[in-house]
Amino acid sequence: YRSHKYCGYCGHEMYPSKTEWAMLCSHCRERYYPQIAPCIIVAIRRDDSILLAQHTRHRNGVHTVLAGFVEVGETLEQAVAREVMEESGIKVKNLRYVTSQPWPFPQSLMTAFMAEYDSGEIVIDPKELLEANWYRYDDLPLLPPPGTVARRLIEDTVAMCRAEYE
After folding, report:
1. d(CA 42, CA 116)
2. Nearest 10 degrees: CA dihedral of 91, 108, 96, 117?
3. Could you count the other beta carbons within 10 Å of the beta carbon of residue 23?
4. What confidence score (pLDDT) does residue 158 get?
5. Which PANTHER family match (predicted)?
6. C-alpha–C-alpha distance, residues 25 and 11, integer Å
7. How many whole angstroms separate alpha carbon 61 and alpha carbon 117?
8. Helix and strand tally (H, E) in the chain?
9. From CA 84, how far away is CA 42, in angstroms rounded?
10. At the N or C end, where does the chain have fewer CB atoms within 10 A?
11. Hey, where are the domains in the chain?
């Protein structure tokens, strides 16, 4: 709401709608909806292991799956392939949608996927990641907290590995 104090059409003050997530112009009644930035997040499995990384923006020792914003003109599937390649040098296959999770800040909608390793060696983008490695499903590092979509993807991957390898 802070970014829409004044109407882009007539310049008058805006106020929050009482019936929906929107801002209304006090003069011309123009309606503005919040913008949502679509993001992807993906768990990548290779045999009995999952690709986990430490991100540069989170220096708390937590290892998580890869994620990133969808670019204009890009499908969700293309965004997964691009983000994974950019951040890790890995190519994925058999992409499958799992769930979604809204994040109010930074106004994003996470679309969660699972994928299988196709090819490539890990080569991290040091602007994005501190490190990335394959971790066996029964020997994982510190993970994101329960309730996050990242944690769900990791737990789903672990469950699939257990079903296959135990």
Report:
1. 10
2. 20
3. 20
4. 98
5. NAD-CAPPED RNA HYDROLASE NUDT12, NUDIX HYDROLASE, NUDC SUBFAMILY
6. 9
7. 24
8. 2, 9
9. 8
10. C
11. 1-34, 37-165
Residue ranges for the chain with pLDDT beneath 70: 1-3, 104-105
What integer pLDDT is reported at residue 49 of this predicted model? 98
Evaluate whether 129 touches 65 at the Cβ level (below 8 Å): no
CATH of domain 37-165: 3.90.79.10
d(CA 50, CA 121) in angstroms, rounded, equals 14
Show the tokens assigned to 81: 């392939």
Nearest to 94 by CA among 102, 84, 107, 86: 84
The owner of tokens 């679309």 is 111
Rounded distance between C-alpha atoms, residue 165 and residue 152, angstroms: 20
Q: Could you tell me which residues come within 8 angstroms of residue 17 by beta carbon, excluding any fewer than 6 positions away?
A: 23, 24, 31
CA distances from 139 to 8, 63, 142, 154 (A): 54, 12, 10, 12
Which amino acid does the sequence have at 40?
I
